[in-house]
Amino acid sequence: MSHTPHELAEEFPAEVEKMHKLKLENAHFAKLFDEYHEVNRAVHRAEVSVEPTDDAHEGELRKQRARLKDEIWALISAA
User: Fold this and answer.
1) What residue spans define the domains of the chain?
2) Contact yes or no for 29/75 (Cβ under 8 A)
3) Residue 33 · residue 9 · CB < 8 Å
4) What are phi and psi of 70, to 5 degrees?
5) How far is Cα of residue 54 from the mean position of the Cα atoms in its chain?
6) How far lies 30's CA from each of 4, 18, 55, 68, 71, in Å?
7) Which has more confidence, 26 or 50?
8) Cβ distance 22 to 75 under 8 Å?
9) Residue 48 φ/ψ, nearest 5 degrees
10) Which of 23, 46, 66, 74 is most buried (CB neighbours < 10 A)?
11) How far is residue 27's CA from residue 69's CA, in Å, rounded to a whole number?
């Protein structure tokens, strides 16, 4: 298990400018972006035991983060 935050700027470093533009111009993208960061922070807090949770809940958070990341990538790719 990695305890490294999965920030979108680190996940897609070549797309930082495009993400910034999409956040300003696309309300759906902005919502997904914010939701991703909320879920990502929850996963990270669980990983480092700041907010301990059971394995099943942490697994669900990870799946949610992956789904959001996939949807975000689809929007980035289409832009």
Assistant:
1) 23-78
2) yes
3) no
4) -65, -40
5) 20
6) 23, 12, 29, 12, 12
7) 26
8) yes
9) -100, 10
10) 46
11) 16
Handedness of CA 20, 17, 25, 22 (dihedral sign): negative
What are the tokens at 64?
């949610």
Q: Which tokens go with 68?
A: 């959001």
> pLDDT-based confidence at 50, cuts 50/70/90?
confident
Q: What is the pTM of this model?
A: 0.87
Token output for 70? 């996939």
Place of tokens 């983060």: 65
Q: Which of 34, 35, 37 is nearest to 10 (CA)?
A: 37
